[in-house]
Design brief:
Chain A is built from 5 helices and 9 strands; from the N terminus they run H-E-E-H-E-E-E-E-E-H-E-H-E-H. Chain A is of the alpha/beta class and about 200 residues long. In chain A, the strands form 2 sheets. Chain A has a 7-stranded mixed sheet. Chain A has a two-stranded antiparallel sheet with strand order 1-8. Chain B has 17 helices and 18 strands. The two termini of chain B are about 80 Å apart. In chain B, helix 4 runs parallel beside helix 5. Classes of the chains: A alpha/beta (about 200), B alpha/beta (about 625). Chains A and B meet through strand 7 and helix 4 of A and helix 2, helix 3 and strand 2 of B.
């Protein structure tokens, strides 16, 4: 039996959405594998169209490492200015500008968007706000094209996951979020197969 | 103590004790092993429980770290709910890095996890164990996990005790079977022996034997038991034999002592008769003298044998010529030899031989052999006495043409009371102690005796073997002793004290007839009173008198001024060195052993008088 949890950590007034999202960006890095591994310099986060995020991420970068590397945060004024960071955060309403972005083939960039349909515009991970809480959805197809591996733990927390890794049988295709595929896993705790069975039974009941 | 009186724990059989020992040992071993195993298991159980909780916590940490980091409570709750399958986990919870409760899980009927994170990482209270472990992402602690498991020690110990009881019962059964088989091999021979022992005690039959069934220690005990039975049987037979011999001896002794009495009584009656003439009186006196002599010899032999047996006979060795020994022996045996018309031949070395022996005892031994030869040979037989100086020894042998003996009787021949059975019926009789006496006397001189016979009716040969070391140089021979008769003339004041009136009076009469002034006392007190009154020159004191004994009288006399020079002669039945020392210590000059020889007393008195006479 699941006990009633403590009071839900809602986003407080003095605790802006950017604070939570900046923390999540930092934490996301721990669940994503970049190709190339250890031989690399500073971890670079580029921010497009959100000065508030630049501030928040910049603050965190002083105190935290990502995968044992110092973190550099810079603001991209335009798509041309993006260069090839490790993480590209695209602020709300700027996702469509990604269509003109041509990342270098040699670098893998995790593209994080923050708007409805961000994954259709080329985002790999898109923040959503559901019930006043920050959640996210994932496009495995986009991440796979960039040779990025997203850990199953992270996928387990995703509201929706589109596409499948190359090794798996493809069931999900990127679709408009309004009609998610019934076949697609969505935020299931995959480590516990039994709970999946129970969920199916619960749904039948 | 009869078995019924013994306390119950001593009344049990060896079999029961053995069984009890085996069973006790088994129970002890099982429980010692069990307690050791239990203590190891408790510690192992605790360790394994902690490790189990810790592993569970680590797995949970892996699966819930992302949920904690991204604040995803439903996913975390689902992850915790998987613990439902783990019956040992009673409650679980996730806490944020700041220590606030994130999600929790509790198995129905158990306490929910604490709302505030405990500081302790491990806490065991009662039947529950709590573990708190951090959830890490790299070096960062993203939260804490709390697990509470069942620490079921009581049930575990109870289960163990149950198993021990079962194992104990099984072990006891196995030990019982095993011990029953084993102890049969140990106790069966004991029971057999106990049965034989009981049988022997009730039936007095020492010919029974226990059967030996094994070659181990029990077998040794059975052997020893049988050997002891053999020894007991042999010694009881020997005792019966000795008892029979003693009875025979007593009968013979009575007969032998009774025999001389008839002629003595007849002679006395004859002497009392007024019609007796001088020739008849002379004859009667000779009969009495001869028969008394015979009884005295008999009793002397008896006393000597008994002294030898008790180790109380002391030799008085002195250089003596072989010739004088032979003469004395032949002289003693001559009357019997002559009366049976035997032909006696004597063969001794031509050279003069001097021996350092007790002359009295050696000639006594030889005369015994001669007398025996004369007795056990039909009249007109031949007797040969021979002395040979062999390289190793001096052999004195007496050979006869008499009745001889069977070789079987050789073993018993020299023991006391033994007598050739056919000889008992012979007129000469005898006590059957002569050969025992000879053997004892030869032994005292460091020698031995031997006997040979070609069989019954073929004569026999007895020999005394003495070591050659007894031969001494001629010069050792003492000068002729002073003539005992010389001192007998003259008068001494003599006091004779003995509680045996006849002994005292007869000695006093003889000494009086020798010309001494004699007074007689029959107790120690009388003797002392008379001594103080008369101040005698010589006192002959019996030691064993009632009241004041001879030692005491002697000490009192010696305490007097006149008593310093008095001749004191002790008379006693005891002739050992320590007895003589005692009488010397009491102040006696001489120690005579009963029965005393009157001639010896007269010699001592004479010797005492000679220096006195010379001094005057």
């Amino acid at each position: 039996m699941l006990g009633a949890g403590a009071r839900a950590p809602v986003i407080a007034a003095d605790y802006s959405e950017e604070v939570v999202k900046a923390a999540y960006v930092f934490r996301l890095a721990g669940y994503v594998d970049w190709p190339g591994g250890a031989e690399r310099g500073d971890f670079v986060i580029a921010v497009l169209g959100s000065p508030a995020m630049v501030r928040q991420l910049g603050g965190l970068a002083h105190a935290h490492l990502i995968n044992n590397h110092p973190v550099r945060v810079r603001e991209a004024a335009s798509v041309r200015d993006i260069a090839d960071p490790d993480i590209l955060y695209v602020g709300a309403g700027r996702a469509d500008s990604l269509r003109s972005w041509r990342p270098a083939a040699s670098r893998s960039t995790l593209v994080v968007t923050d708007e409805e349909g961000g994954l259709q515009d080329g985002g790999m991970l898109n923040f959503l706000t559901i019930d006043r809480r920050v959640r996210f959805e994932v496009s495995l197809t986009a991440a796979g094209q960039a040779h990025l591996k997203i850990s199953s733990e992270l996928l387990g927390l995703a509201v929706r996951v589109f596409g499948v890794p190359r090794q798996s049988r493809g069931l999900c295709e990127p679709r408009p979020p309004a009609e998610p595929s019934a076949n697609c896993a969505s935020g299931v705790a995959r480590m516990w197969p039994s709970s999946k069975v129970r969920r199916v039974m619960g749904a039948a009941a | 103590m009869s078995p019924a009186m013994a306390p119950f724990w001593r009344r049990t059989t060896v079999r029961a004790r053995l069984m009890r020992l085996v069973l006790l040992t088994t129970v002890l071993a099982v429980w010692v092993a069990g307690i050791a195993m239990l203590s190891v298991d408790i510690s192992m159980y605790r360790k394994s429980l902690v490790s189990e909780l810790s592993t569970e916590a680590s797995i949970l940490a892996l699966s819930t770290a992302a949920a904690l980091e991204f604040d995803d409570r439903p996913v975390a709750e689902r992850n915790l709910s998987a613990l439902e399958a783990r019956a040992g986990i009673l409650a679980a919870a996730l806490y944020t890095a700041r220590g606030a409760l994130f999600v929790s899980y509790v198995r129905p009927g158990n306490q929910p996890p604490p709302g505030v994170l405990s500081k302790e990482s491990l806490r065991i209270a009662g039947d529950q164990a709590e573990l708190v472990q951090p959830v890490r992402r790299g070096t960062e602690t993203v939260g804490y996990i709390y697990l509470r498991g069942r620490y079921d020690l009581v049930n575990r110990v109870a289960a163990y005790v149950g198993i021990f009881v079962l194992v104990t019962l099984l072990s006891l059964a196995a030990a019982f079977l095993f011990a029953s088989r084993l102890q049969a091999r140990i106790t069966r021979p004991l029971e057999v022996m106990a049965g034989v022992a009981r049988e022997i005690v009730s039936r007095r039959d020492y010919s029974l034997r226990a059967q030996k069934t094994s070659e181990d220690e029990t077998g040794v005990v059975v052997d020893a038991f049988n050997n002891m039975l053999e020894a007991v049987q042999a010694s009881s037979q020997a005792l019966r034999e000795a008892d029979r011999r003693k009875d025979e001896f007593l009968a013979t002794l009575a007969h032998e002592l009774r025999n001389p009495l008839a002629p003595i009584r007849h002679s006395v009656r004859l002497l009392e008769s007024p019609k007796i003439d001088a020739q008849q009186r002379q004859w009667a006196r000779e009969v009495i003298s001869r028969q008394v002599q015979r009884m005295a010899l008999l009793l002397d032999d008896l006393l000597d044998v008994s002294r030898i047996t008790r180790g109380r006979l002391a030799l008085k060795p002195q250089p003596t010529t072989l010739e004088s020994i032979i003469n004395a022996a032949v002289e003693t045996a001559r009357p019997l030899i002559d009366s049976k018309r035997h032909a006696l031949t004597i063969d001794v070395p031509a050279d003069r031989v001097v021996l350092n022996v007790d002359p009295l005892r050696i000639s006594q031994s030889l005369s015994n052999l001669l007398t025996n030869a004369a007795k056990y040979t039909d009249p007109g037989g031949r007797i040969a006495l021979a002395v040979r100086l062999l390289p190793e020894e001096i052999e004195m042998s007496v050979k006869d043409s008499g009745i001889g003996f069977d070789p079987e009787s050789l073993t018993d021949m020299f023991t006391m009371f033994a007598q050739v059975s056919s000889a008992i019926d012979r007129a000469e009789g005898g006590l059957g102690i002569g050969l025992a006496l000879v053997k004892g006397l030869a032994g005292l001189h460091g020698g031995s005796v031997s006997a040979r016979s070609a069989g019954a009716g073929h004569g026999s040969e007895f020999a005394i073997h003495l070591p050659r070391a007894l031969i001494v140089a001629d010069a050792a021979l003492p000068a002729d002793p002073p003539d005992p008769g010389a001192g007998a003339i003259g008068t001494l004041r003599v006091l004779v004290a003995d509680d045996n009136r006849d002994a005292a009076d007869s000695l006093a009469t003889i000494l009086h007839m020798s010309g001494n002034e004699v007074s007689v006392a029959h107790s120690g007190e009388d003797a002392l009173r008379l001594a103080l009154l008369e101040q005698p020159q010589a006192i002959i004191l019996d030691i064993g008198m009632p009241g004041m004994n001879g030692y005491e009288v002697a000490r009192r006399v010696r305490a007097q001024a006149w008593g310093k020079k008095t001749l004191l002669i002790a008379v006693t039945g005891w002739g050992q060195a320590e007895d003589k020392q005692r009488s010397r210590d009491a102040g006696f000059d001489h120690h005579l052993t009963k029965p005393i020889d009157v001639a010896e007393v007269e010699r001592l008195l004479g010797n005492f008088q000679v220096p006195r006479a010379a001094a005057h």
